[in-house]
Amino acid sequence: YYYTIKAVQYPTGNYYRRIDSTFVVERELTTGKLNAKICIRATTYIDKSTEREWVKQEYVNETFDYANFLLNKKIKYLYPEWFQNINDPSIQLDMLYEGLIVQLKNYKVVLMDADDIEPYAPWINESLELERSYEQKYPKEKFNFVTVEAFVSDDKYTFFMIKSEFDVEILRSVLVMETNRFKLLQVEIEE
């Protein structure tokens, strides 16, 4: 399994109310299938006076011990804060309509197609379709709603952080593939 922190801001349809929630998510490494989703905090903000006097109501999962969870699951952090300086400059990654693309020299290959990405990032097809529709509507512009923020490898797995950003909505997910497969694809491209 691998683990992520998922922060969600739910649209309530009301300008004077919003809900933020934070979850710890456990997914299977090889399939991206959701195994567990634990709510650790849910906060509702209400502006009762409509004068920006926000009242906060909060649920905190008192039974969940985050520090012990990390220790018991032997979790190690793969991404430094803000994902800085972890991209290999020789590898160019991009998210296109076809899926996750790696480019070395003048050759591109699909690492993971959009259907394979779906279990890891259920929002991917909608975001890529939105990007594609904007590109068709404004052909002289380049739109990059979906990007690869970072990737990092260990001996067994390579993790890719992808992000969709449109208007005020930001969605992030982690894609996983076996490191041997990733290296094999790199060798194929270089040859």
In short:
With 191 residues, the chain is of the alpha+beta class. It is built from 4 helices and 10 strands, in the order ββββαβββααβββα.
Shape call: flat
Q: What is the quaternary state of this protein?
A: single chain
Number of helices: 4
Enumerate the spans where pLDDT stays under 50 for 5 or more consecutive residues. 81-85
Q: Quickly count the domains.
A: 2
Integer average pLDDT: 82
Rounded to the nearest angstrom, the radius of gyration is 19 Å
Widest sheet, order of strands: 1-2-3-4
Instruction: Estimate percent helicity.
Output: 10-25%
Number of strands: 10
**Largest sheet at a glance?**
4 strands, antiparallel
Q: How far is the N terminus from the C terminus?
A: 33 Å
The chain-level structural class is: alpha+beta
Give the amount of beta strand, in percent.
Answer: over 45%
Q: What order do the helices and strands follow? A: EEEEHEEEHHEEEH
Question: Could you characterize the architecture of this molecule?
Answer:
The chain is 20% helix and 46% strand. The strands form 3 sheets. A 4-stranded antiparallel beta sheet has the order 1-2-3-4, with no helix packed on it. It has a 3-stranded antiparallel beta sheet with strand order 5-6-7. Strands 8-9-10 form a 3-stranded antiparallel beta sheet. It has 2 domains: 1-76; 78-191, no CATH class. The two termini are 33 Å apart. It has 191 residues and is an alpha+beta fold. The protein has helices spanning 66-73, 114-117, 124-137, 179-190; strands at 2-10, 17-27, 34-47, 54-60, 92-96, 99-104, 107-113, 146-153, 157-166, 169-178. A hairpin with a 2-residue loop joins β6 (99-104) and β7 (107-113). The relative contact order is 0.13.
